[in-house]
Amino acid sequence: MEGFQLLCDISELNHLFRDSVSVEGFLQKTVEMVTHRLKTDVCSIYLYDEEEDLLVMRATQGLHPDSVGQVRMKPSEGLTGKALRELRPIYETRATRHPEFKPFIGTNEEQFENFLAVPITRGLNRIGVLVLQRGKRRKFSDEDIMACKAVASQLANIIENARFLMTLHAPHEDKPRPEPATPAPDMIRGKTACAGFGFGPCRILNREHTLATLSRREYPEVYSPADFDRAVRTTAEQLEDLQNRVEEKLSDAASLIFASHLLILKDHAFVGEMRKRIEKGINPPLAILEITRQYLDIFDRSESSYIREKVQDVEDLIVRLIDNLLQKSGPAEEFAHRVVIARELFPSDLLRMSSEEVAGAVLVAGGVTSHLSILARSLQIPMVIAQAPELMKLTDGTPVLLDADTGNVYVRPNETIVHSFRNRIEARTALKERKPEVKPETTTRDGVRIRLMANINLLSDVSLAKDLLCEGVGLYRTEFPFIVRSDFPSEEEQLLAYRRLVEAMDGKPVTFRTLDIGGDKVLSYYPFPQEQNPSMGMRSIRFSLDNRPIFLQQLRAILRAGVGADLRVMFPMIASLDDFLQARQLLRQAAEQLKAEQTPHHESPKVGMMVELPCVIPTIESLAEEADFFSIGTNDLIQFMLGVDRTNEKVESYYLPHHPAVFRAIRDVVAAADRHGREASICGDMAHETAYLTVLVGMGVRTLSVEPVYIPQIQKILEMMDSAKAKTLAEKVLSSGSVNDIERLLGFESQS
Ligand code: PEP
Ligand code: MG
Question: 2-166 — its CATH code?
Fold first, then answer.
């Protein structure tokens, strides 16, 4: 029972972490907690130092305290090393007699024969080992082992964030000065990434600029050590508050997103060094900046993208800390009710903006089908992408009105514009309050049944999907919870999120697309190799097949969450029958593992694939024999078929969903699926673009999966459609060889 109690209290680890003053202090408290809860004689944590290829004891309860930092071993040595090497728990009841046991003189561990070592891993990263030891007669139960695995997985989250603090200091050079502010034009036209309006003072998100500005300015006012301590306290409170809000709003995404900020604040070497300087009489802002420079210098020089991401965290934190110091009372939130203008945004920025109720965002580079735009839509942050770097030169606080419906950005808008904007907001609020009229089933005017499913990116999309009566989930982009986090979610964390989706859908079909990372969907915490063409590189199903532990973990979580559901699993970026069969084999392996462990799971989900690569079209017949269903991902299919980068706004005019090759490819997939009694749906953006609906239905498409917000509008159009006329139009379009002819058939010319 104690094991289960421990499992239930795992969130306590997060609290322990938040209350600790240092990483070492946190690890020590953790071993004390585990020792107490599992009534074990010894609990120790070893961390793995990759550069030295050494496991080093970092905390212990029960062994001699001097062992900390002294007990070191190669992963090739001892039972502890074995757990890390083989990535599995090692349990021995007569440890000292085991040929691989490695004794350490002076630790007093010889008396503890029951030895349990559980690896601490995060995705593919080996982080360390949690070791528990008991005397001869007190064995560990299966429950104890389960509890330890759960603690190890939670510890991994936190330690991963702490690792970067375990580096040393070095001097730093000043960064180049930013250009002075210059006025930007009054109105800029951009493209809608997420519709909506936003009006407020702008916030230029230019991290280098912000920190450089702070470094350059003078600090005539002298602050006291007490002012500094207060600023540190306020900063910690603000970060904890932010973390709580993100957790409330986005339960699947939340995982100590602000952990590294908090850790830096708790690091002795960092804040302690600042305090030492302040006590010697250095003005606090200067002391903060001096130590920060030392840190940034270390991080800046790093090759690792993980560490470089931390540069951003340090900069964010310092700006916040100095703001708190100078303002004496806590500053307002950074993004609240502001229009953020940025050259580059990370998913974690969007999360933070969302939790702070940002007014909107303007990105001065990028394409609208990029995943950042998709995420903005999930978070409902009005966003425009405008090729207007001059916006970055605006002074912070300049009023900006964002009309993300049309893609217009107004700088210092006049009274008339603001007035009409307010009217439109009121009208929209009234419209929102009126529930859109949707029917649970969709049919064309002549009675052809079309299924409207929802694309889900984050669980926050689910309530709208349900309100709008979607007939199930046609695409759950499981990578989004991975992207917006600061570390790999564990199997249990994935299970929780997936289970919530399955429960919300209440028996309707739920299609899990397995991890589709790489390309423009990078994980800040995973060091993707540098590639010339990442969208054609080690991404998507290739990543999963190459990283089996991660893939299997996800497949297990999906199968476990799918108990009793109409579960469908589909694989992204399949290039061949061989890819598909390999991926399906791993799904079967995951099911076999679960069966052997007697863990409840779905035994026979439908297994399908995305059609996103042109090479799939000529081989579609063989795929249709094996795959239970196809889902056409037009976003990528168009990109690869036409050789046009979907994230590059410069080649936007070449990105043509109505290219004859695209329509013919869709036709071929639908026809092959029909011949084999399989379902073919469309889940790319083309499914919600009303201009193509008639042709798609005319070609025989009967299932569309779209972002929930589009469901009412699409249903209305379909209800007015005549399927026989749609078929005639489709035939004409399919026999046209030129984009121009198709545009004429679809009435594009008359619209412009
Ligand atoms: C697609 O490629 O059309 C698709 C639905 O997948 P994603 O947009 O996530 O790449
Ligand atoms: Mg895709």
Answer: 3.30.450.40
